[in-house]
## 1
Amino acid sequence: MRTVPLGKSGLQVSQLGFGCMGLAEFYGEALGQEEADKLLDAAFEHGVNFFDTADVYGCGRNEEQLSGFLKRRRRDVVIATKFAILRDDNGALAGLSNDPKYIRKACDASLKRLGVDEIDLYYMHRRDRSVPIEDSVGAMSELVDAGKVRAIGLSEVSADTLQAAMKIHPIAAVQSEYSILTREMEAEFIPACREHGVAFVAYSPLGRGLLTGAFRNASDFGKDDYRMAGNPRFSEEALAANIKLVDRLGAIAKEKDASLAQIALAWLLAKGEDIIPIPGTKKLNRLKDNLAAASTDLNADDMARIEEAIPEDAVEGERYAPAAQSTLNA
Ligand SMILES: NC(=O)c1ccc[n+]([C@@H]2O[C@H](COP(=O)([O-])OP(=O)(O)OC[C@H]3O[C@@H](n4cnc5c(N)ncnc54)[C@H](OP(=O)(O)O)[C@@H]3O)[C@@H](O)[C@H]2O)c1
């Protein structure tokens, strides 16, 4: 697989990364360690070198799931993790922290769970508006000075926050949701990233599964799946409407002899080499399906037809339930 620069960090990453979140939590049952290792090794063997996790995924378990893999492959992969989203003792989401003292503690805990000396890309998962961005990015910059972090990223911030952060320390990448169904970053935010040479890491590039056609009704979701309560796009009514929308891509996929997932990922890749999608899956066959998107070429006519089939803002329902939605664009 081709590699692309991660902003101006000097790091080179595969044009498709791997989102590890689902291995631990949120989308049904967690994977056992053996299965997780198989999947991570397969991703690596198929050319993926960019792996995404966060301390909040599985309350630290997702980082631990990666530690054996990192031991085997440390020199050959770029590992990204995140801090800021708090959980209480029962695992319930418990607000945000960007407090410098907290950031230092969270970084040490992530290093320990991952079993590495340095995090390649350390993201602020969400901005906590009560802490000046200068203070939080200042603390992240000290982690770079201390050799604990190589490059800094932000997630779901506003263009103004990005500009302010860049004055304190170079920002290598911003991670936000981006897919054919979620295009609100296109108007201002992605141009702002381009102006500063910041990579845009596209999370939930398959619309949390919606864009694959694999989830068609409530029974397609596993036990304890977060989406139906946490993402209004998956409420019964919205799901029915959104599936009809995604079905419109079927004809294009058939013509290209591609899966819907490949069309969704190839659409992002065609937007530019600074857009780096990080799809996630717990299944080996789906991993291979997704990675083949790197060789699914879409021309300008294909892109126009896809965007005509799913117009901007056509998706039904907000991305998150109100409390989480209010932390976006911060
Ligand atoms: N910064 C943030 O706030 C944030 C938020 C969310 C996610 N993320 C990151 O982004 C990564 C990816 O996003 P995501 O996991 O939310 O969503 P996604 O990659 O858009 O979709 C994942 C879902 O699609 C299914 N799927 C994947 N490939 C498939 C295929 N080829 N055919 C059919 N179904 C397929 C998966 O099910 P199976 O596992 O059963 O295959 C899973 O339910 C996460 O792992 C995480 O690292 C970051």
Note: The pocket of NAP is lined by residues 19-22, 27, 52, 125, 155-156, 175, 203-209, 212, 214, 261, 278-283, 286, 289-290 (CB under 6 Å).
## 2
Amino acid sequence: MRILSGEEAQKAVRYIEDAATAAAYASCFRSKCGSVIVKNDQIIGKGYNAPPLDVKLEYCLKDSLPLNFKSDKTCCMHAEQRAIMDALQHHPDKLPGSRLYFIRLDEQGQKKKSGDPYCTICSKFSLDAGIGEFVLWREEGLCVYDTVEYNELSFKFRG
Ligand SMILES: [Zn+2]
Ligand SMILES: [Zn+2]
């Protein structure tokens, strides 16, 4: 992981803003997240979290699942998954070596700093799709991870 600086950081701030704009569309009761994927200064995919097909749920699925439920408990497609699918549909040739930016909004719709990577669903999906780097806004600043590193860290995470 390395902290972005200079022009690279300035660009990243703008892409994180774009991800925040996407996050505002999230229809989840629990969290609002957004993601954009960038290759050569072009946004090639965007996504926000929402239940599959954007179907509006009356309640959060997570609350009705038993403790021993085995798979991912979130009701939603994750923002990163959506951004990757968007890029696969519209710019599949540009995915290899691209950079994914992720942001989460708080209850007031303000950008929230990320902690350590933990979502192996998205880390695996990103790696498999050929995304080269992953950017999070953290306490230290805007941090870029190699996607291989991001995936390894996600598997090491213990909540
Ligand atoms: Zn949800
Ligand atoms: Zn995820």
Note: Residues 78, 80, 119, 121-122 surround zinc ion (ligand 2) (CB under 6 Å).
